[in-house]
Specification:
There is one protein chain. The strands form four sheets. Strands 7-1-6-3-8-10-9 form a seven-stranded antiparallel β-sheet, covered by helices on one side. Strands 12-13-11-15-14 form a five-stranded antiparallel β-sheet. A five-stranded antiparallel β-sheet has the order 17-18-16-20-19, covered by helices on one side. The longest helix is centred in the middle third of the chain and has 16 residues, at 253-268. It has helices at 34-48, 54-64, 122-133, 195-200, 253-268, 324-331, 355-358, 387-401, 425-429; strands spanning 3-8, 13-14, 69-73, 75-85, 96-106, 111-116, 146-149, 158-164, 176-182, 209-218, 237-242, 301-307, 310-317, 335-337, 344-353, 366-371, 409-413, 444-453, 457-458, 469-472. Helices cover 19% and strands 27% of the residues. By secondary structure, it is of the alpha+beta class. Helix 2 crosses helix 3 (122-133) and helix 5 packs across helix 6.
């Protein structure tokens, strides 16, 4: 039965520079040279299966020195570039050299096979099976591989490369190459030669080697460079982490959510008159006559994320679709600062996706929700009205706008709401009294529902900037 060695590459990469080619040529040795394969088998025997007797392995290697037929999986040749300081490099005058790391990228589960058209005696076959299973890599050390002997293996999407003699008739227009192979009969000592010793001896090629021609007799179907379009899910939530040693106090949450909105709109790069027509800004071009969204709670909410009594992160939650250009503008924000105050914050993108994945602490579901930031009613109570009853009515009204059920219980819980800043720097800079007010009374609440509801839940005045934010309990 013919003998077939199969090599699988878990990382999908095969690194091997052809003999006599400079590394910066970006060439990859495919098909592999019989010389490389034989040296790999010899090295594995000496380092990983040294107990196998010479009387079995040396005759095996002598038989395998005959150039095999290679079945090469379809692939694409690529490279990475590496830059390192050369001998003239200094801090004042940097100087670097470039080195290419070329490799063949295989498809997932692709296998490279070497096929010899002869049988092996039982002892040699057992030794070959053990050596094959012990191969750690083939080519450069980056080319991790798994080897095995598999009788009856059949090629699929593979190039078939056959050794040819100079006297043979070549197939017209077929691809051909020449690779290094051992001379026959095999001299095992020649397999020990190191490239550095060969160069030091003034030789171009190792002793005991020759070049063997290979011709591709059966080409594989081409590897498609066009990947099927993948529909990415809509990004409803973008999370930012605070990237500085001192976190701001939680009472400044509204300040930084407003600055995040302004920074994102500035990054959008549109004309000032066009910036309001965005999901980030709260208006769309196809909105009603005033430019406001028809459903005013489908645009972006800028919510604080607390750690203890400090602001540790920010979340931009958009129930509606966030266009790609607005998502990119938002992801580019790195610094928050205000022209009218001392507020500065360094942030970095920490996650994009659905709210349960990006900010599970806000999502629920739960029947009990408690205030993380004070709830500020959107209206003013009438003179003499009961404060708790007014809050319960206003909460139910806010929930109905979001198509959520009214709670069966609303309770006031302890919390120092007066210390919270309840104005937006951007509103104060343009002297907008409607959005810049800091005088409205507020309260920390506990809401209890008959059935679990899913968050985020942000209600009341300035709810799109993090006021009235509730956490599931």
């Amino acid at each position: 039965m013919p003998t077939t060695l199969v090599l699988a590459f878990p990382w999908g990469r095969y690194h091997a520079n052809p003999w006599g080619r400079h590394v910066n040529e970006g060439a990859v040795e495919l098909p592999p040279s019989p010389w490389r394969l034989l040296r790999a088998l010899y090295a594995v025997w000496r380092t990983r299966a040294a107990d196998l007797p010479d009387t079995v392995v040396l005759p095996l290697l002598a038989r395998l020195a005959e150039p095999p037929v290679f079945h090469v999986p379809r692939h694409a040749v690529a490279h990475t570039r590496h830059y390192y300081p050369d001998t003239t490099h200094t801090r004042a005058a940097p100087s670097t050299d470039r080195t290419l790391e070329a490799f063949a990228a295989f498809e997932r589960d692709a296998e490279l096979a070497a096929h010899w058209p002869f049988d092996l005696p039982d002892a040699e076959l057992a030794a070959f099976r053990r050596i094959a299973a012990s191969i750690p890599y083939f080519g450069r050390a980056d080319s991790l591989c798994l080897g095995r002997l598999q009788p009856g293996w059949r090629p699929g999407a593979h190039d078939t490369w056959c050794p040819v003699d100079a006297a043979e008739t070549l197939i017209p227009d077929a691809a051909s190459t020449a690779v290094l192979a051992p001379t026959l009969p095999l001299d095992p000592d020649a397999l020990l030669a190191r490239p550095v010793d060969i160069r030091r001896g003034g030789l171009l090629f190792p002793g005991g080697t020759r070049f063997v021609g290979y011709q591709r007799t059966e080409p594989a179907p081409p590897l498609s460079r066009h990947r099927p379009a993948i529909k990415t899910p809509v990004a409803h939530a973008v999370r930012f982490a605070v990237l500085q040693s001192a976190y701001p106090p939680e009472t400044d949450s509204l300040i930084y959510t407003d600055l995040l909105r302004q920074s994102a709109l500035n990054r959008l790069g549109r004309l000032p008159e066009e910036r309001p027509f965005t999901q980030l800004g709260g208006k769309t071009a196809d909105a009603d006559g005033g430019g406001h969204l028809t459903n005013q709670h489908q645009h972006s909410h800028y919510l604080p994320l607390h750690n203890g009594r400090r602001l540790a992160g920010l979340l931009v939650w958009t129930p509606g679709d966030l266009p790609d250009d607005e998502l990119k503008a938002l992801a580019d924000v790195r610094q928050l600062h205000s022209a009218i105050g001392p507020w500065r914050l360094t942030i970095r993108l920490a996650g994009i996706g659905r709210v349960p994945d990006v900010a599970p602490e806000l999502s629920g579901p739960s029947t009990t929700w408690e205030s993380a930031t004070p709830f500020t009613p959107a209206r003013y109570p009438k003179r003499g009205a009961d404060w708790l009853q007014f809050l319960a009515h206003d909460v139910s009204r806010e929930l109905s706008y979001r198509e959520l059920p009214a709670p069966h219980s609303v309770q006031i819980i302890d919390g120092q709401w007066a210390a919270w800043r309840r104005y937006r720097p951007s509103a104060r800079s343009r002297r907008d009294p409607r959005q810049g007010s800091a005088s409205r009374p507020s309260a920390f609440l506990r809401l209890t529902f008959d059935t679990p509801i899913t968050g985020p839940l942000s209600l009341g005045h300035l709810s799109h900037f993090g006021l009235g934010l509730f956490l599931p309990q």
